[in-house]
Amino acid sequence: MGFVQFVRAEAGKEPFHFFQSFFCTSERRMRFARAALAAICALAVIKVVRWANERLGWSPDDDSTLDGTPSHVPLSVDCALRVFAYSFGLDLPLASAVPDRHAANLHDALQLSKCPKAPKRPVASNTAEWKPLDSARATTTASTLLLYVDPAHGHDSLYAGSRSNPLATVQEALRRANQASTSTVSIVLREGTYYVKPNDPLVVTRSYISLHSEPGEVAVITGAEPRTFKLSQWTRVSKDAAADVSVWSVNVPADDGGQVLALRMNNKRLVRAKTPNGAPELLGSHYRGASDAIGENGRYDFGWFDSQPGDWLPPITVVPDQAYESRPENWPFTHWPAGTTASASALDPFAPMAGVGGTGPFRVGHCKSGEAAYFCAPSPPRGEAYRFRAPSGLKRCSNVPKGAVVVAWRGGRSGLPAAQNATSRWFSWAWEVESVKDDTCHFGAGGHQGAQGADDGAEFYIENALAFLDEAGEFFHDVEAGKLYVAFNGSRSGPTGKEGWGLVRDSRVLLRVQGRSADKPVVGFSLGGVVLRDAAASWLEPHYMPSGGDWGLPSEAAVVLSNVLKASISNCLFERLDGNGVLVRGYSRAFSLTGNEFAWMGASAVVLWGRTSSCLDSLCLSRLPGNSDGPDGRAGEQPRYSVISGNVFRELGVFVKQSSAVFQALGGFTRIEGNAAYNGPRALICFNDGFLGGDLVRNNLLFNAVRESGDHGTRASPLAWG
């Protein structure tokens, strides 16, 4: 079980930021708490099994198992718990206009079709069309400026934006809204698709703007450019009768918007040509551990290469030139957490560790990206084995061109026992191949997607090469030749000319809500009843270490909110976004996320990430370089009093394996309640540090967590410690 410390500031004193200050009790009390929790869970299981036997007539003697369940767990126990979870999930206060969609997805994820006498699956398929609630509309007053937008019938220059004469683009509506003199502005999106061009997100800079769909209609905001290609535009390049695959090409020149980073066909995510074959969307349910338990020493059924000793080039070590420290004596009027370091151990996460919690100094060093962070310090307190670094290349690169992308789990690290190295899969890396010589890839950008270091990678795959285009559903964009290649199922089949294509280029942010400062925030922004999909991935963009956990994050997401007060997002569908879904960065108060669905996310669904100043003492006489986060949180630039309630989070971390439904760093007083979250590679809720505290997590359904990693697996709660 992962325990999280809820740290509060002393009365009259300002909150401080302490990396991974999770353990607010003594070791003996912690052991007692773990034992008590285990006893409570055991009693709960016994009661559920008795209920199942009485109500459903299951026999405890059946020893067959379902996917992901340890072999020693009887089917009666397994199914009883799954039916109980299903019933609990249906009772959650989830706002949905299509309740059978949630029920069908939940039924499938729990594998209830394999449980005898379990409730039947709803008639609606898990692909039932999402619809917004009729209540997903903005509240207007007599002084509200109403702007209607209709992509099919509107016009930006000729029409005023009324219901009968709507605008054509959200960009024009927001331009007028941001300049409006009225107290509130409500933008109503009519049915249709609204394309957000690369590096040109929708921007909100003033208060009291609402962006909602017309009740009963579905408005889609997408980073994929809608395109159709006539059959006459396609050319068959090759066919493989044995594999029953044919490859076709169509002209998409580089000056037609840049490289196609991702491709959609009829709203489905295609696979950028990779080796070994296997769609990333499917791989999460194909990681197996010993005796089919999801956990340590496991492997994938397909889609990843197993790493072998000697595969990886050693890291290019950047020796930090300076360490920065802050000690209790630098803050004479502020509480510094008490504790002892006598029992500190790098292998025992429940022991206080100098510099991470307890009484040690705040100690950081320079990172590759330029900022200062905990794991970049010379000999970080947790141990040299954890210092930030990553492999510089891969030797198994036959037929790999420059520009290909290598994706790998973090592997072992020197200085630790072999048993610990086997369970080091805490996050995944991605690198762009800068050059290839003698079948060895030398990496360029990337390798910064996690905070802690390692000398080697673990399982890996390689993508973005024409030579790997050999399975139906794959694509490759040759920018220099101006050709888009797509592999179709069937050696005698191909495109029909009727497909709906979506070309995702560099549209990493779809909507940005940006206040001027913490003193001048955007107040009362609301987003409701819309679909947001197809934003590009950010995994090769700069990443930063948000406090002392093992995460590395980009400052981007499909929706980014910064310097906001009472912002809300409700009743929206976030689907097939290749990066993070929602990022609340810096100052935020009373942010509300309610009644939404997040599905097939490339990374995390929600990230709450605050800021601290660079001051290293109470008078700011010494500072960290650049915009680095120090121990000083007195300015209050953090998400506080956020409410995340009644949402569904499913199919997370398709590309970025260190992902969660909800991640928080440098925030506090967050309420996470009444949500359903399942099917993720790592923990579903992650508190990266103990900053502020006051968080409340209750009445959530969390299951199928940590499906692809090995340090807590079935033995840990989906609620993780950093």
Give a verbal description of the structure:
By secondary structure, the chain is mainly β. Among the domains are: 27-114, no CATH class; 186-224 and 507-612 and 638-721, Pectate Lyase C-like; 250-289 and 297-311 and 405-503, no CATH class. It is 11% helix and 27% strand. It contains 6 helices and 48 strands. Strands 4, 28, 29, 32, 35, 38, 39, 42, 45 and 48 form a 10-stranded parallel sheet that branches. Helix 1 (27-56) crosses helix 2 (75-91).
Low-confidence stretches: 1-34, 290-295, 340-358, 414-423, 713-722
Look at the helices and sheets and give the structural class: mainly beta
* Major sheet description: 10 strands, parallel
Quaternary organisation: single chain
Helix content: 10-25%
Which overall shape is indicated by the principal axes computed on the Cα atoms?
globular
Rg result = 26 Å
Mean pLDDT: 82
How much of the polypeptide forms β-strand, as a percent range? Answer: 25-35%
Label the CATH architecture of the domain at 186-224 and 507-612 and 638-721.
3 Solenoid
Identify the CATH class of the domain at 186-224 and 507-612 and 638-721.
Mainly Beta
Q: How do the strands and helices of this protein lay out in sequence?
A:
Layout: H1 27-56, H2 75-91, H3 99-109, E1 144-149, H4 170-179, E2 184-189, E3 192-195, E4 202-204, E5 209-213, E6 219-222, E7 224-227, E8 235-240, E9 245-251, E10 262-265, E11 268-269, E12 271-272, E13 274-275, H5 280-283, E14 287-288, E15 299-300, E16 312-313, E17 323-326, E18 362-366, E19 372-373, E20 393-394, E21 405-410, H6 418-421, E22 428-437, E23 440-446, E24 457-463, E25 474-478, E26 483-489, E27 501-504, E28 511-514, E29 522-523, E30 526-528, E31 530-533, E32 559-565, E33 568-570, E34 573-575, E35 582-589, E36 592-594, E37 597-599, E38 606-609, E39 639-640, E40 643-645, E41 648-650, E42 662-665, E43 671-673, E44 676-678, E45 685-687, E46 696-698, E47 701-703, E48 719-721
Helix pairs in contact: 1-2
